[in-house]
Amino acid sequence: MFVNKIFRPVFETLAVVSFVVLLFYSSTATAQRKELPEEWDMTHMVMWGVGASVAPQWSFGITYGQVRVLGWYVSAFTGTGYNFNGDFELDRSNHPIGDYPLESDRFNGRVSKARLSITGGMLFRTVKPLWLYIGTGYGYRSMVYGTHGGYWLKPQANCYSNVAIEAGLIYNFRRVVISAGFSTIGFSYVDGRLGVGFTF
User: Fold this and answer.
1) Residues with Cβ < 8 Å from 103, sequence gap 6 or more?
2) At 16, phi and psi to the nearest 5?
């Protein structure tokens, strides 16, 4: 609820502003492209990135794009845990759903955190040498807890699967690019992202 109140207005405003700016640059892209110095004439871009949330949880990914004044990108991030489903689910009161075989089972302290996002979107220049990126796609996040009985339990309260929305800035210094932004899953889970790469 808190995340919705804070981030939903930000993303809605950013989406409207980005759309207006995108229309403006679309009408002047050809003229602006001719004025770009060679060091800002990006054609292909590759970045390696890292994401982090306050959970805490880490994820790592790669982004590829093509851009001069306007462009596009695709991005994929994944976490270090790959146990997405677990053996049983827990309701929001942390009680097993279904016929759980071990009523007296207890958590053993092991936690598997899974994170996945596949997104794509638009890149366009704002002020030299900064580019804005904004995109959408699919995002997933879960935490699965191990038990002494050998099961993995997935709590509904800490798992999200929804539309992913992301935005941020890319700084291009000659052929080196550095990015900073954030991504959200349905306005319920947010992580910050940093990236570094090059153009060619």
Assistant:
1) none
2) -65, -45
Cα distance between residue 41 and residue 47, in whole Å? 17
Beta-strand ranges (E) seen in 106-188 are: 107-125, 130-147, 152-155, 160-173, 176-185
Q: Rounded to whole angstroms, how far apart are CA atoms 12 and 73?
A: 21
Q: How far apart are CA 144 and CA 32, in angstroms?
A: 50
Q: Distance between CA 138 and CA 115 in Å, rounded?
A: 11
CATH class of domain segment(s) 2-199: mainly beta
Enter the pTM of the model: 0.73
Q: SS3 letters for 67-109?
A: ECCEEEEEEEEEECECCCCCCEEECCCCCECCCCCCCCCCEEE
CA 159, 77, 169, 21 torsion-angle sign = negative
- Domain locations along the chain: 2-199
Report pLDDT digits (tens) over 68-94. Answer: 888 999 999 998 887 777 777 878 777
CB of 63 within 8 A of CB of 120?
no
